[in-house]
Inverse folding.
């Protein structure tokens, strides 16, 4: 077995996990407040293309990341207006976001199609920790966004479980009517969390063009990561730390080719199969989604996908 | 007893009222909901607002807790005028309302529900401190509750305790209880009354909203009776009795009579044998046997949620029982769907009148057509004639036959539904058996009495009638036999006049009792 390649693959998997985790954590926030946003892929594309343009023009990695995030948040506001204020069907609106995001990002990215962006995040070396075999390169020699993502997951866990505001968010996702009578501002909370979801998805897209893929292309940049993120939230039962773990597993699956190519025992997995994976997962999620009973059992927020109308109680 | 019993009408115990409504008037489009009402509660007192549905008692309570704002008049708290813009404002003034429909998040723990939306709560939750405080309040007022229990696993009675604790946690010392006993078993009602009295002993003021005379007499110090938006009397409980209160409430002397079937035949028109309904891993209806003879009313009593709904739906053919058989007038209709059950002579009045019984968006005429034999072309003319006759006979208040069913009040829509389901009664092709769920829920006394008369009449004309109702008084007043449903099983069954009230209450609460009647 080729150990060095395996460790490299593990280290690369951590990097590949970042955009999946960020997008899924964002979706988790939106869904916990009761709003399903299928438009993750669209928000990521918008974040990616905006980050590329800004990074290309300014050369500043961090400015590009922030702009990418804000673009995603702004884009997700469309979903919030449609689903929270106008009470549109969340699935339809989310799909519209994907289609619109694909089109709009292609348009914005016309001038930069195929152009390389010469940026990369500098890894942080944790002194001697980085020299530990296996663990060192995997955990202690990664770029700052890896650590930021872990921190975000921890903060979200604390926020949802240990703070007054987090309790209100969960109440809005479980029973908006109850939350409303207890003086919680249902619509405001849903807006904020849908847009936080957009922010994180936008940053996930931005991270892809800034740190992972060398250039912008509409179909090659996100390559279904948004759909994986959606599925991951369900498989992780809406728990942030499980999302983190799951993101790493999916990240590993995306990078496993490096390692498997050098192994004699490994079967040839066609690349087409891997690119099919996100959509297969989405179908699996929809099967789960179809069963109310199953949904409840795995811990889906009770009011997920349901618009709240105060007068309809 | 509470210290303020002496504080009868007009008497002041030397301190300002905990809460008072002064000359409040509230209008809704076309309705004068309350008309210049005065009402006050002293600290340490239980003051009941008694009235029929639509008498204005809920509107008055809503103004006291901040849900509505009075059009005229004002609310006083401890003698000072206050402006309540929302229930949140009300809570800030220490006024808490326990609604009939609980406002709880099922997935949350008791403690989480208690602190949800509490403005005084620190940003970061100290779970242990909150849980201790919740348990402490529970202990102090006789509301034993585990702060870490998840709501979905609690009984209805326990959920009500959580609601009360929630208000006490926020420092409410005026509590409004809206029809709190509607969902409780008799032993739970006893426990609630103990809690109420331990709260008044602490100087809290309790507003109790009810239309049940017996419990009003049992729990309150004073009673304000409302009718059609106005106060018709304010009396100390010690100076009155049920009959007097009923007169004030209805405006004329009332007789809540008992009626029994005069001609119960030997043949069974509706029967269930071993009917069981299992949903997932829950047994909703557990091996139930029922026989209803022609000319007989059988009443299914029980606290709601003990299998009434699935039982009714299984009998009516809406759902297929997991096992067991249902026959209507001798024909086995198990699993053949509602159409087959109807064809065999079964009529069904579901509890959910507008939605399952009537289509809200269809006209009264079209609603009548729904159960008529369907040819290719509908016979709207005869249906229209039929509903027009029913409007006269049943005194249905409606602008016409072509209005949408959703525009009718509860009582009138129930009458339309009964007109449809009872049509052809006595004919060989007409209804042989009738299942009625919650026949008078939400109806005022007049309409309720009318509906009960219709059911009695159907029995006398030879139909087998099955009533499923949470109103034990109603079941007892009409039924020849009673079966008590508890957790999907028949916990007690017998002739109404041979079942002591107490045994029925115990059976409803799931207390197994030794001697079979």
């Amino acid at each position: 077995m080729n150990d060095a390649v395996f460790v490299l693959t593990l280290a690369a998997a951590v990097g590949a996990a970042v955009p999946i985790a960020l997008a899924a954590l964002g979706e988790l926030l939106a869904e916990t407040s009761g709003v399903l946003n299928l438009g993750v892929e669209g928000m990521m594309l918008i974040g990616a293309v905006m980050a590329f343009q800004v990074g290309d023009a300014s050369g500043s990695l961090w400015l590009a990341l922030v702009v990418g995030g804000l673009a995603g948040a702004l884009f997700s506001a469309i979903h919030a207006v449609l689903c929270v204020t106008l009470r549109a069907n969340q699935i339809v609106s989310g799909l519209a976001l994907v289609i619109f995001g694909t089109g709009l990002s292609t348009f914005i990215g016309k001038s930069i199609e195929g152009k390389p962006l010469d940026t990369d995040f500098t890894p942080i070396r944790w002194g001697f920790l980085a020299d530990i075999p296996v663990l060192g390169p995997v955990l202690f020699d990664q770029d700052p966004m890896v650590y930021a993502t872990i921190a975000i997951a921890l903060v979200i866990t604390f926020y949802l479980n240990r703070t007054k505001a987090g309790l209100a968010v969960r109440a809005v996702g479980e029973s908006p009517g109850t939350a409303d009578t207890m003086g919680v501002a249902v619509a405001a909370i849903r807006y904020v969390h849908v847009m936080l979801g957009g922010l994180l998805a936008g940053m996930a897209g931005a991270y892809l063009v800034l740190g992972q893929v060398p250039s912008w292309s509409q179909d090659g940049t996100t390559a279904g990561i948004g759909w994986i993120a959606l599925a991951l939230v369900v498989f992780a039962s809406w728990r942030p730390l499980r999302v983190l773990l799951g993101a790493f597993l999916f990240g590993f699956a995306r990078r496993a080719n490096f390692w498997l190519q050098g192994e004699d025992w490994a079967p040839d997995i066609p690349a087409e199969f891997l690119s099919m994976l996100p959509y297969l997962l989405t179908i699996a999620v929809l099967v789960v989604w179809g069963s109310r009973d199953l949904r409840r059992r795995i811990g889906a927020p009770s009011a997920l996908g349901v618009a709240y109308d105060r007068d309809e109680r | 007893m509470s210290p303020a019993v002496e504080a009868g009408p007009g008497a002041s115990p030397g301190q300002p009222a905990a809460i008072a409504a002064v000359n409040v008037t509230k209008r809704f489009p076309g309705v004068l909901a309350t008309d210049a009402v005065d009402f006050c509660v002293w600290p340490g007192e239980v003051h009941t607002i008694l009235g029929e549905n639509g008498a204005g008692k809920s509107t008055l309570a809503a103004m006291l807790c901040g849900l509505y704002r009075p059009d005229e008049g004002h609310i006083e708290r401890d003698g000072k005028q206050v402006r309540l813009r929302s229930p949140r404002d009300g809570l800030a003034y220490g006024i808490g309302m326990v609604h009939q429909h609980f406002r709880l998040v099922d997935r949350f723990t008791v403690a989480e529900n208690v602190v949800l939306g509490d403005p005084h709560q620190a940003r970061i939750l100290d779970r242990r401190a909150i849980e201790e405080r919740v348990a402490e309040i529970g202990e102090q007022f006789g509301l034993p509750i585990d702060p870490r229990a998840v709501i979905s696993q609690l009984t209805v009675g326990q959920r009500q305790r959580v609601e009360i604790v929630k208000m006490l946690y926020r420092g409410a010392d005026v509590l409004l209880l809206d029809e709190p006993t509607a969902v409780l078993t008799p032993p739970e009602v006893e426990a609630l009354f103990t809690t109420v009295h331990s709260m008044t002993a602490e100087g809290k003021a309790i507003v109790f909203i009810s239309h049940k005379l017996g419990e009003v007499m049992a729990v309150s110090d004073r009673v304000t009776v409302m009718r059609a938006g106005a106060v018709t009397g304010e009396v100390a409980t010690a100076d009155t009795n049920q009959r007097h209160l009923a007169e004030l409430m209805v405006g004329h002397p009332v007789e809540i009579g008992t009626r029994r079937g005069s001609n119960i035949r030997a043949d069974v028109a509706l029967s269930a044998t071993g009917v069981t309904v299992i949903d997932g891993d829950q047994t909703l209806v557990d091996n139930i046997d029922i026989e209803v003879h022609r000319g007989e009313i059988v009443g299914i009593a029980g606290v709601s949620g003990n299998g009434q709904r699935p039982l009714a739906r299984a009998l009516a053919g809406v759902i297929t029982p997991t096992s067991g058989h249902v026959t209507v007038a001798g024909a086995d209709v198990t699993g053949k769907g509602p159409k087959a059950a109807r064809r065999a002579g079964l009529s069904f009045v579901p509890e959910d009148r507008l939605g399952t019984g009537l289509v809200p968006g269809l006209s009264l005429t079209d609603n009548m057509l729904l159960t008529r034999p369907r040819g290719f072309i509908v016979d709207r003319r005869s249906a229209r004639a039929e509903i027009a006759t029913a409007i006269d006979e049943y005194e249905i208040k409606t602008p016409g036959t072509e209005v949408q069913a959703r525009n009718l009040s509860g009582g009138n829509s129930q009458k339309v539904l009964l007109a449809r389901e009872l049509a052809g009664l006595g004919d060989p092709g007409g209804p042989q058996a009738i299942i009625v769920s919650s026949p008078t829920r939400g109806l005022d006394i007049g309409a309720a009495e009318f509906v009960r008369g219709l059911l009695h009449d159907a029995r006398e004309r030879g139909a087998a009638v099955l009533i499923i109702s949470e109103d034990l008084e109603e079941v007892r007043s009409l039924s020849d036999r009673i079966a008590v449903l508890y957790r999907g099983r028949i916990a007690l069954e017998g002739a109404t006049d041979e079942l002591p009230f107490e045994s029925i209450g115990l059976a409803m609460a799931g207390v197994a009792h030794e001697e079979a009647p």
